[in-house]
Design goal:
Length: 466
């Protein structure tokens, strides 16, 4: 069967600053919360990996852009490191940081690759983290200033902006599961942060539109589908609650301009609802995104059988080790006994992407949608002939592209696909063990080696289909 995509469909891949740049102490960059976390808790990351060198993209960006061009990319999703632009979060702008991204964006545009730029992919400047991070309202003001600096410095080059990457995932892991910085297990703080992030998002959208440029602004969400584990009404209820706290708390304000009533009620009942100020809610209601970015890896299955509170991500790469996410009395995510799983116990389920695209479409029919991340992590080494035969990645991407093709045929406005990731990179808790890239990174030499999937994708981009 032939899968032909609409003209102008964006073929790209994605990265995030902390995961590829390295040069964490160069040219005036400040520390982010992740730099400090990796230093202070080396035991939490595979082989005590740090982002200090990452893929050395800060020095090798020109070659990386040339590789993207050679692979036929027409788009590239990346993030700006806040601590490179404003090293201490609130003080002077670091002109060397601004110059780095201006050079990078210019090279991308010159190569015919449209940058899609996320302002915040979790690398909060450390002084702000130390002062309370997103629990401190001052962080919102600092972010708005940082956003303005970026819009003004790069607005002539960047036409696609996203405020936050996966606010639900960073909130959950930072404040509920205690797996990411600031390593908290505090529901009240989690809800406060989740609220602050979405109000900050709304204010940033208003700021951007107020500046009146010709760019578009959105947000990147991991709208992870949540299915009931069985057809019992109790599991259906558990799935509804999980969806409310995991997804709708973040999607509804961004797309509908309001927080979901059932989640508000749940938090109020449990005395963890932050003060919802009228001016915040007016701000959330006033303006909205020009597009939505969706990241999709795997779905969840919710069971009501949540007798304990337990969290854990698979960081071994052994597919028999389960991920755990269970909140006593509310819901527990369980494995799909019939599912296909990656080595990190993430289910491969392309129809889940269809469900979330349909959902985004239902929220705001016609709103442009970009698939801003989708990919598969694996342990990989170079073959004897110096390549990586990642047929499973080709299969993974092809199956998801088929779903996107079907969604477009059914009237959903999907504009582009950014495979996670352009290159193997620093995977938050898995260090350099879990590889996602089209480009294999030789950790000894930093040499980039296109995998078999990279050549396959080049052909897809060239033919605008497969
Ligand atoms: C997404 C993040 O949640 O998942 C990426 O936006 C991340 O930054 C990707 O790398 C894969 O997750 P992990 O933990 O396997 O690297």
């Amino acid at each position: 069967m032939e899968f032909q995509f609409p003209q102008g469909f964006v073929w790209g891949s994605a990265t995030a600053a902390l995961q590829i740049e390295g040069a964490t102490r160069e040219d005036g960059r400040g520390d982010s919360q992740w730099d400090v976390f990796c230093r202070e808790h080396p035991e939490r990351i595979w082989q005590q990996a740090t982002p200090d060198l990452a893929c050395d993209h800060y020095h090798r960006w020109a070659g990386d852009v040339a590789l993207m061009k050679a692979l036929g990319h027409t788009g590239y999703r990346l993030s700006i490191a806040w601590p490179r632009i404003i090293p201490d979060g609130t003080g002077a702008v670091n002109e060397a940081g601004v110059a780095f991204y201006r050079r990078l964006f210019a090279a991308l545009i010159e190569a015919g690759i449209e940058p899609n730029v996320t302002l915040y992919h979790w690398d909060l400047p450390q002084p702000l983290a130390r002062a309370g991070g997103w629990e401190n309202p001052a962080t919102m003001d600092a972010f708005l200033r940082y956003a303005r600096v970026c819009f003004e410095a790069f607005g002539d080059q960047v036409k696609l902006w996203a405020t936050f990457n996966e606010p639900s995932w960073s909130t959950l892991n930072g404040y509920v599961t205690a797996l990411h910085p600031p390593l908290k297990h505090d529901y009240r703080a989690a809800v406060q942060v989740a609220y602050t992030l979405m109000v900050t998002h709304a204010r940033t959208v208003a700021l951007f539109h107020g500046l009146g440029g010709d760019g578009k602004i959105g947000i990147v969400q991991n709208m992870c589908p949540v299915y009931p584990a069985t057809d019992s009404p109790r599991d259906a209820e558990a799935a509804r609650i999980a969806d409310a706290v995991y997804n709708r708390w973040f999607i509804d304000p961004a797309l509908l301009g309001r927080f979901p009533e059932d989640a508000v009620e749940l938090y109020r009942r449990n005395h963890i609802l932050p003060e919802m100020r009228r001016e915040d809610l007016d701000m959330v209601a006033a303006d909205s995104v020009d597009f939505i970015g969706v990241n999709y890896y795997f779905p969840h299955y919710a069971s009501a059988d949540a007798t304990e509170t337990l969290f854990g991500l698979n960081t071994s790469g052994n597919r028999d080790e389960d991920c755990h996410f269970s909140i006593k009395g509310l819901f527990k995510f369980v494995r799909n006994p019939k599912g296909r799983y990656t080595d990190w116990a993430w289910e491969i389920y392309p129809p889940g992407l269809r469900d979330l695209l349909a959902r985004a479409h239902r929220y705001r029919p016609g709103l442009p949608i970009y698939v801003t991340e989708n990919g598969i992590g694996a342990q990989e080494t170079l073959d004897a002939d110096g390549t990586v035969d990642d047929q499973y990645r080709i299969d993974f991407v092809r199956e998801h592209l088929e779903v996107i093709h079907g969604a477009i045929a059914d009237g959903m406005n999907v504009r582009g696909y950014y495979m996670w990731a352009l290159m193997d990179n620093f995977s938050w808790l898995n260090g350099y063990k879990k590889r996602y890239g089209f480009l294999f990174i030789d950790r000894e030499t930093m040499r980039r080696v296109p995998k078999k999937s990279a050549f396959w994708y080049r052909e897809v981009a060239r033919r605008n289909g497969f």
